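dumping this here before i forget
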Amino acid sequence: MEENRVVERTGWAPVRHFAERSVLGLLVVTAIGLTFGVLLLLVRFHWQPLLDLDRSVADGLNRWTSGSETTVGVLKQISSFGGRGVLLPLVILLAAVLLIRRRPRPAVYLLVTGAGALIMDPSLKALIGRLRPAVEVPVATAPGNSFPSGHALGSMVVYGMIVLVFLPAVRRRWRPWFIGLAAVIVAAVGFTRVALGVHYVSDVLGGWLLGLAWISVTAYAFRIWRREAGHTTPPITDGLEPEAGTDLKPAPAEGAVLPHPWAKAAEILVGWVFVFGLLYLVGYSVNRWEPAFDDRFVRWLQTFRTPALDDLSWLASKAGDTHAILIISLIFCPLALALWRQWRPIVFLAFTMIGELTLFLCAAASVGRDRPSAEQLDGPMPTSSFPSGHIAATMCLWVAIAIIVMSRVRQPWRWIFPALAVIMPLVVALSRIYRGMHHPTDFMGAALLTAAWIGVLWWTVRPNEHAETVTEAAVRVERGRKLEPVA
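structure:
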């Protein structure tokens, strides 16, 4: 009855268009599936022309890559964009963003499609049982069997479904570039797997075809789901859920992020110079003064060393290294953007961390302070001791996050973030001094860097100007939606 009412209200044209698109989509999916099936059979039954092509390409690329460690390093870095260590957190993070933006259907699509790819990869590899290439000069290794390429399959599925879900948030003139960027990433990941000698060309082609078939099937199922829920089924070129465009935009209805950007850039640059000058003055004074308590405290702390504390201090020290700081920033920024729909706090955090890194590197190179004379558990380091980069990065990150959260959250749990802004730097500082990598005055230098630099950004960027709670941000976006001109 409901279906009859829909037809009476809208006519047969939408139904006919849906049927035409469904048949075309079915034909495309069938063609992709058949191509993958043929390729699978050729691999499974060791068709000689395909084997010769695979080996020829693998040997040629191995001769090219094995001559340069830099090339191998770059290829491995690009290849990581198709690994589970990147793709799995990315899917979970984007699903969380969609749930925050109250778009559960695309979130379910991401999770289900991603889980399907996660299951298919090892299952097919075990079924086919193809060994990985044996090249003359191995430059990389990978576990498991070879066909299909898990990186090629995963990158095709994840970046493909990201395009389908987030396309409505992209302006029409930028959509070809958005799709092209995803295609370049997928192609680059596939190339690196062959160039590193861990997959044949046919492995990568098989991964791409299987991934394309899988996202096509799940996208078709999603469109059926929409239709059964009473929604229209627009062309796939408009994305899976075109009406979600406003909700998927990073910061709809936001005004200018930084008024007078050139003036602000000049203010930030001048502030950076003053902070660097302050750090250099203090570092130079400490270097000339060489306070006796610095080394004495490190040597005293060294007397408490045990294998268990060494391991614990290593873990605590890792909480302040570049990878940990970058991971926390990459998790916090999308969630903050989804919650409060403002770029200003993201800009504040980005400037904080970029400024911290450049100030630390320049100050350390200028001051040139030696590490403590106590045994250094982490071995020789490329930078000097003052100020501590680990401590400064940890302090800047958690202080900036606390500043952002405290003005936008009204619940009592917000006090967790100021607590972390105190606890995390102290833990990292204690571990770095315990491991003989820094003096107590290096910790003071990191605190000085944090206080001065965040003070500059507080005055210039004003991260909490127009700060809103989640509810207030939703109301602002809804008002902006009502004021949007009708297309």
